[in-house]
Amino acid sequence: MSDSETEGLLESEILLERVWKSEKWSDLKIKSRDGNVYSVHKVIVCERSTFFARACPGLLDVPLYIDEQADVLELMLRWLYALDESKLFKYCLDNSKAADLYEAAADYGIPTLTEQIEEQLDLGGDVYDRDLDEKLPPNFVKELIRHTTLSIGEIMADGELWSILQDYSGYQKAVITYLAKGSDKVEQDLFL
């Protein structure tokens, strides 16, 4: 990349950061589950999210309610504005938000974000057939198990998903342990 291209990218990042921080020219308000309101720009969020593209065909007089906690919603919105991607992933991994962010990105039609999380966490491999300290933070694994247990009925009803879960005996054991004994037992068995 030439110096002028690099300079142009830096200017774009600075501009997007200023746009994100300013309510000027925003044409959409988004409200989180816990009441935080974000002023955003449809040209940005609708272009990068199929959900927002469908939800915002015209002007909205009231904030669009998104059933996510503010910290997850803000991470997702910052991704849509292409801000601090490396810092964003470090934050969400350190604060066990990766599972929540991944689920939100899937729910709100942001495949670039789900792909990035999968790539960062190498989710193509078996979570439990490798050393847990290798790549995945324990808090993320715990959250992944929790999210799986919340959807276990859907997983069992879907033959393909159920088959995938059965292929990973260590992960399956952790999910069953979580269901049978509660999350504290999983933490004791796997992380201490």
UniProtKB/TrEMBL annotation:
Signal peptide: none annotated. Pfam families: BTB. Gene3D superfamilies: Potassium Channel Kv1.1, Chain A. InterPro entries: BTB/POZ_dom, SKP1/BTB/POZ_sf. It comes from the Eukaryota. Residues 26-81 form the BTB domain. This is BTB/POZ domain-containing protein.
